[in-house]
Amino acid sequence: MAQTKPEAIAALEAVAASKRQEIEQKPLLTNEEREQALAKVNQALENARQAINQAPTDEAVGTQKAQGIQNIQDVTATPTAKQNAIASLEEVARNRKQEVLAHQASTTEEREAAASLIEQELQSAIEKIKAAADDNAVNQQLTAGKQAIQAISPSEDYKAAAKREILEAANRRKDIYKNATQFTSEEKEALDQKIDTLVSEAYESLNQQSRKELVDQEKERILQEIQMFPINPKEKPFAITEINGELDLKVRELENDSRLTSEERDEKIQEAQKAANDAINSIGLAPSNNDVAIQKMAGVAAIHAADATTKERSQRPFKRLNARRKRNVKRSKIVKT
Questions:
Q1: What angle (nearest 5°) sits at the alpha carbon of residue 164, between those of residues 161 and 169?
Q2: What pLDDT score was predicted for residue 104?
Q3: Residue 63 and residue 48: Cα distance in Å, rounded?
Q4: Among residues 207, 306, 217, 292, which one has the least CA distance to residue 255?
Q5: Mean pLDDT score across all residues of the chain
Q6: Are residues 102 and 49 in contact, defined by beta-carbon separation less than 8 angstroms?
Q7: In sequence order, which residues have a C-beta less than 8 Å from that of residue 78 and are 6 or more positions away?
């Protein structure tokens, strides 16, 4: 049935009113997006009104009315700003979770806790974006949400505490020889390097562990390894052993020397013993390997000075010492092999 122009326009206005209500109630639209959609509805209505008023026949009125209704209904309102902001925020959260879950300095439990916080912060930021009124507010909430998510890092407390225990145990081990005169400076430096290497390897091993129970197990293994790490002086005990060996040789030599009276023998044995004691004391105070060697040689010479009456006899102890050194070097090579 043909409609008059006022009737056709009234029908268009009813469709436009319904479309406006739909746009007003559509969620996630910003003020700008809503206003743009409403403006398109009003423009479609106005265009249809003008076309109907210009229609020459009832048939043309009907045609323009149908086209106007279609144009009004085709107006869409898409919440692009909030959807894009939420998608961007979800990508930031996804990347941050990957970083957190790959953080070796944290345990699995600490990583999972941080990932959970990221998810909570993401959902909170999404709700704030949804509630934002305009584009500017959406951008502000997006920026704030990204910053909050990026600021979340997994705790490193558990492994850090284990590392502190290991370092403290290593330092206690170092204290054994730090101020001890039984060790030369080279031996102390070598021990420091070995213990530092042990600690460094321990840290790396702890970083490879995932769950707290595995960190605990590895920590206990490392602490035991540090506790059992051998700390023994070598240079000074070896030198003192050589001094005592030379003293024994000298005493036997004096005891078998028939040229000496018993009083002379006792006196020279006492001299040799004093020389050995002085050498041992000097070796004990020697700071370096070289100083130990110097004091040892001086001690050997002093021990044998008791009857150094000829060049041949004075050189005898050094020949014996060199022979013993060669034997020790040979034994050392056999052990290393």
A1: 130
A2: 87
A3: 10
A4: 306
A5: 91
A6: no
A7: 33
Q: Residue 107's closest CA among 199, 217, 197, 201? A: 217
Can you give the pLDDT at residue 3?
73
Task: Report how far residue 275's alpha carbon sits from residue 91's, in angstroms, rounded to the nearest whole number.
Answer: 82
**What pLDDT does residue 335 have?**
37
Residue 258 has pLDDT above 80, yes or no: yes
CA distances from 67 to 4, 11, 41, 43, 248 (A): 16, 12, 13, 13, 125
State the CB neighbour count (10 A cutoff) for residue 149.
24
pLDDT at 95 > cutoff 90: yes
DSSP secondary structure, 176-229, as one string: HHHT-TTS-HHHHHHHHHHHHHHHHHHHHHHHH--SHHHHHHHHHHHHHHHHT-
Yes or no: say if 158 and 167 are a contact pair by the CB < 8 Å rule: no
User: Strand, coil or helix: what is 272?
Assistant: helix
Confidence of residue 100 (pLDDT cuts 50, 70, 90): very high
- Give exposure, 97-127, as e/b (b: 16+ Cβ within 10 Å): bebbeebebbbebbbeebbebbeebbeebbe
| Contact predicate 295/282, CB 8 Å | yes
Q: What is the dihedral of CA 106, 108, 109, 115, to 10 degrees?
A: 90
Q: What is the pLDDT of residue 322?
A: 65
User: Which amino acid, one-letter code, is at 31?
Assistant: N
Please state, in angstroms and rounded to a whole number, the distance separating the CA atoms of residues 167 and 39: 71
Instruction: Dig out the tokens for 8 from the structure.
Output: 């056709």
Contact 9/49 with Cβ under 8 angstroms?
Answer: yes
Statement: residue 296 has pLDDT above 70: yes
CA–CA separation, 24 and 22 (whole Å):
6
Mean pLDDT of 279-285: 96
pLDDT in tens, 166-223: 999 999 999 999 989 999 999 999 999 999 999 999 999 999 999 999 999 999 999 9
User: Which residues make Cβ contacts (< 8 Å) with residue 322, sequence separation at least 6?
Assistant: none
Q: Contact 282/239 with Cβ under 8 angstroms?
A: no
Share of the chain above pLDDT 90, in %: 87
